[in-house]
Amino acid sequence: MKKNTENIQIYLENCFSDLSFVKKSVSVADGHSYCVFPGFCDVHVHFREPGFSYKETILSGSLAAAHGGYTAVCTMPNLNPVPDSADHLAAQQQLIDRDAVISVYPYGAITVGQQGEKLSDMSALAEKVIAFSDDGKGVQNEEIMRQAMISAKKLGKTIVAHCEDNSLLHGGYIHDGIYAKAHGHKGICSESEWGPIARDLRLAAETGCAYHVCHISCKESVELIRKAKANGVDVTCETAPHYLILDENDLQEDGRFKMNPPLRSTEDRQALVEGIADGTIDMIATDHAPHSAVEKSEGLQGSPFGIVGIETAFPLLYTVLVKNEIISLEKLLELLCINPRKRFGIPFGNDFTVWDLDARDTINPATFLSQGKATPFTGKTVYGKCISTYSNEKKVYPYTK
């Protein structure tokens, strides 16, 4: 623990201009020390408001984030109204200003209504959003994506892409692999993901646009991005904790194992782990996507895509990757905090989170502050407990009004 604490101090000194507030806020009792980390940053969450507050709200989502050690998040635009204009964005921003306990940065939609047919009012949104995405839907039309990249380049913004070719889905809802075949499920092929990535990487090279790929899940995606980086394309990407820890062999006939993209093969998972180790994959984002208990009770076929993850990400990754010496703790911090903030220009501020890395716990959705409870990790033993989280020099976990 002492070694960890000393290493993290180096990160703190690089991240914060003034450590006095941090030092005063960390307590050491009975010879037991806690680790202090810069606040984590998640560039891919769904807080569901406005439009779907029965799934999650800005308040519940941001409280859950603080519980997980996160002090900055970027919220996806699959809302009602879709933030495709300044007026529509204002409805979301009012809720953020009123209810968020951490820093919440909204995405603007790439296309009107996320329908993929006409560009949103990108120039009016640019100064008010962190980047542009149609996450939840892939932009099917190549020319629309080209024009979006040209506009984003002019505006100094990043295109953040959910890569999915609808023509290759064929009604699938889990990976087109051994589990789907053995249990009679319709599968989603990997090409539905890596095909659009290949197209977009070509367009990013053509336009010079900053391009970020959401939630990659398969080995082909890793290799395409690795080659594009070597060729000088301005591309970054993310994967999620569940793709690094689980694969199709872990599937159960339960909606809490259904997400998009799906859990893929063992070989895909191994390629993702290699990708975070060698720097091809820049960051880990949770794709925190809460739904109601009723919605997620309909099994693999009938449930909506999406699981929660912002409260369990660090303990899971620390337990599986760091304690098993797959990556270092410093590398995990780069993936969860340093790299996402650098890529999206999100300041560190005086945000930090305090953890007891020796604490052992069992993942129990009943303890979640998120309204969503569906996680494939229920019952898993993990190490690491969040003691407190501070955002803008205010304690946001445990939270008191």
Report the count of strand segments. 14
Provide a count of the helices. Answer: 14
Helix-strand string: HHEEHEHEHEHEEHEHEHEHHEHHHEEE
Mean pLDDT over the residues = 93
Radius of gyration: 20 Å
Shape: globular
Strand content: 15-25%
Helix content: 25-40%
Amino-to-carboxy terminus distance: 33 Å
Summed up:
Helices cover 36% and strands 17% of the residues. By secondary structure, the protein is an alpha/beta fold.
Keywords:
alpha/beta; five-stranded parallel β-sheet; about 15% strand; about 400 residues; globular; 14 helices; disordered N terminus; four-stranded antiparallel β-sheet; 14 strands; about 35% helix
Notes on the protein architecture:
This protein has 14 helices and 14 strands. With 401 residues, the protein is α/β, with parallel strands linked by helices. A five-stranded parallel beta sheet has the order 5-6-9-10-11. A four-stranded antiparallel beta sheet has the order 1-12-13-14. Strand 2, helix 3 (58-67) and strand 3 form a beta-alpha-beta unit. Helix 6 (142-155) crosses helix 8 and helix 8 packs parallel to helix 9. 56% of the residues are buried.
Helix and strand arrangement:
Layout: H1 2-15, H2 20-25, E1 35-38, E2 40-45, H3 58-67, E3 70-75, H4 86-99, E4 103-106, H5 122-125, E5 132-133, H6 142-155, E6 158-161, E7 174-175, H7 178-183, E8 187-188, H8 191-207, E9 210-213, H9 219-230, E10 235-239, H10 241-245, H11 266-278, E11 283-284, H12 299-302, H13 313-322, H14 329-344, E12 352-362, E13 381-391, E14 394-397
Helix pairs in contact: 6-8, 8-9, 9-11
